[in-house]
Specification:
The chain has 142 residues and is of the alpha+beta class. The chain has one domain. Helix content is 39%, strand content 17%. The protein has a five-stranded antiparallel beta sheet. The longest helix is centred in the middle third of the chain and has 20 residues.
Length: 142
């Protein structure tokens, strides 16, 4: 997973922790460059931008193929908790690579749960996991 030097803040603060796959028309140049390379930008929390190669997301989706809804929910909850805990501390002290890997895995789990399996056509969306229950939900933009 590639991480750019500069972190990009979320365009709008939302309740709880958030992972966002921005729209292709969003005005951020770094996000557009990631998409131009054929990869997927994920904004994590308020200050991490991860570049997820399509093939890595495809591998993540394949790994979730035979999991039950209950297993997907449990894995998603564990990943959301891990990300939330890491972002609760000073982000300069967290392992950004680990947070980005967990976010990509959680994104794959949520895509699988919502039957969005074509990595080349993922719509703008957000994965939200409010602090109180840490149940990840995929929210399509639109």
């Amino acid at each position: 997973m590639q991480l750019p030097d500069a972190a990009i803040p979320l365009s709008a603060a939302k309740a709880g922790m958030m992972i966002e796959r921005p729209a292709t028309h969003d005005g951020d140049e770094t996000v557009r460059e990631i998409m131009d390379r054929g990869n997927i930008p994920l904004l994590i929390g308020n200050n991490i931008l991860a570049e997820v190669p399509n093939y890595e997301l495809s591998i993540g989706l394949a790994a979730t193929e035979d999991l039950s809804a209950s297993e997907l929910r449990n894995i998603g909850t564990g990943l959301a908790e891990s990300i939330s805990d890491a972002l609760m501390i000073d982000c300069a002290a967290c392992d950004v690579t680990e947070v980005a890997a967990d976010a990509a895995a959680l994104f794959a789990v949520c895509l699988r749960r919502n039957n969005l399996l074509d990595v080349d056509n993922i719509p703008a969306c957000s994965v939200s996991f409010p602090d109180q229950d840490r149940q990840a939900q995929l929210i399509l933009a639109g």
